[in-house]
Amino acid sequence: MFHRSVSLLQESGHSSPSFATSMKPLVAMKGVYDANYLVEWRNDVFKQANVPSMPHQADFHAAIVGFEAASKQQNQAQKELDQKTKEHASEAILQAAQAKLDASTQSVEQAREKAAKIADQILKQLEDSLLNQPLDSSSSISLVTAASMMEAGAPKGMAFQQQVQAYGHEDLIQFFCDTDLLMQFASSGGPRKNCYAKALQIYKSIPGGKDPVLQRLALAVALELCTPIDLKVGQGYEIDPVKRYKHYKQAYLAGELDPLFSTFAVWELRMAIDSDAQDDELTWGRECLRNYRPDLIYMQNLQWRYCMIVKQDVGYTNPVWWRRDKDGKEVRTYDQILSSGGKCGPRAWYGRFACKAFGIPTWGCQQPGHAALVRHTVNGWMTCLGACIHKSYWGPVTGNDFLWMTQARYACKTDDEYMRKVLRLEWIATASGEDRTLVSKIADPSSKALWCSLALFQRKRLGKQCTDKCPPLHPKSSVITLLDKIIAQKEEKELITRDGRAIVIPGTAFTKPPKPNNQVHIHKSFMGGCQIFLQAEAEVEYTLDKYQEGRYNMTAMVCTVHRDELPMAVTVNGKDKREIAIPYTMGEWEETEPVEITLGHGVSKVAFKRGSPRYGFAVMQYRLTPA
Q1: Which of 342, 359, 585, 587 could be 319's S-S partner, Cβ–Cβ 3.0 to 4.6 Å?
Q2: CB–CB of 131/421 below 8 Å?
Q3: By the 8 A CB rule, do 41 and 160 touch?
Q4: Which residues fall within 8 angstroms of residue 234, CB to CB, at 6 or more apart?
Q5: What is the 3-state secondary structure (H, E, C) of 512-544?
Q6: CA angle, 528 then 534 then 536, to 5°
Q7: CB distance 461 to 422 below 8 Å
Q8: Three-state secondary structure along 5-42?
Q9: What confidence category does residue 301 fall into, taking pLDDT thresholds of 50, 70 and 90?
Q10: pTM value?
Q11: 492 touches 530 (CB < 8 A)
Q12: Torsion sign, CA atoms 85, 89, 95, 100
């Protein structure tokens, strides 16, 4: 039934083991699972798993308790210093409070280092046994089964029963007996909010295929979109997982996505396909940037590729939501953010939207009093629109813990290795009933979650071995992307030509300024050839020689993303000023309304000058048709 499970695991280097355990069968009782029966089955799984004891556990626990005590003293010292500062205490008192804080901070570092050294001893000892144990052994299979059942709510029964009643029991029974698929789910982070049954239902409904990129995409969609996404911008809709899969499949095969998309693992793809934007908005986001600012797609600064549009065009101001539905209610869309701006929240939303539209993973994020984003690049996960990743958090996960997780995954290279060295520790923690958020939300060890703490130290330990910042985890596919093609294009000026009786002036054919400057840019165009971008107060002039004198209707092919653009002035030989109204094209190419100009005998200098709006717009060409 789950026909893609074997091929995905074989691609990651995992063999297809058989389910060799002799666990108690799971049966239905009048259509509803009995909680006691589920607990009994889970206990059988645990017997097979043989959950190990932790070596040096007492020493590790004592070291973490010492760290927690030191952290408590540090927090108290910080509060005392803040209070003394607020009270405008004397310099001597402030210096004493600062000295106390410095001493407590040093104690925290020493206590953390002590716990890390004991963790290192434990991990080295486990490497000879637990961490190198084959994943297809019966105890490994039983361990991941137990952990998955815990996450699905099987021991308590109720959450599990609700999933079964909502989506049927056959698939869920098969899942817990399908080792291949079980390992795939586990290696990729498990279903969002532990909705196993819904994830299975989605996975079954996505058509299979032989392309490994699309296989990974299908699993990413099933795991991440098994529960509704929180909507930051739109309202009143849910993202359809199957349609989202088809959207990215079509965009990938058409070459519209970033070339790195085909190299991403499932856990990376989950952060690429989870935009709250509707599918047609994602399509618009790609088309808009290709038309309006293609240079932000092929730019060499990978940290800001795609999301630089926020710094360039999303002003820091209160957003204006001008659209209304038939009932007069506010309708929020991403094009309105691009047009009217917003403060840190909307700016971060648009930055994430721009990256995800092109298939680039982003993670959150929030920072104290601020919103930003962390995005994937081959040079590492980088923060945009905010402070460094170490000051970030997203839900119950800190920026540090997220960074260590990514570094450990890249250091391990394969899902198999990461499962053996890191996830196995987390499975033990989950199967033992530990709360992993006790560690993830502070990125420090907790005496109430020893296995989670050990997994934390393991991620940090492995992360230090990552020599490449973000090496591709899968080979690049043979799909030639639009980005590949435009990078190969030349960036050069074009010549004025005729189209019948009409005169066609490419935007790049200007003679003044003599070359591009801060106000006039030449960009390679996804439409072929090149286009120009005119910033505020830009002036360009075109020299027309040996063209028939007379009256012409002139239009410009423009692309804009801001409402209420000021008109552009046009003169011929410095005289006969006209104004071209610049429409709001919402990122599409559109011809302006014509204005009449007159070309005289001989050489004509046709000049265009912008007013002083805050933002620029793109021009493909001008067309002069005899009046």
Answers
A1: 342
A2: yes
A3: no
A4: 276, 277, 278, 281, 332, 333
A5: ECCCCCCCEEEEECCCCCEEEEECCCCEEEEEE
A6: 165
A7: no
A8: HHHHHHHCCCCCCCCCCCCCCCCCECCECCHHHHHHHH
A9: very high
A10: 0.91
A11: yes
A12: negative
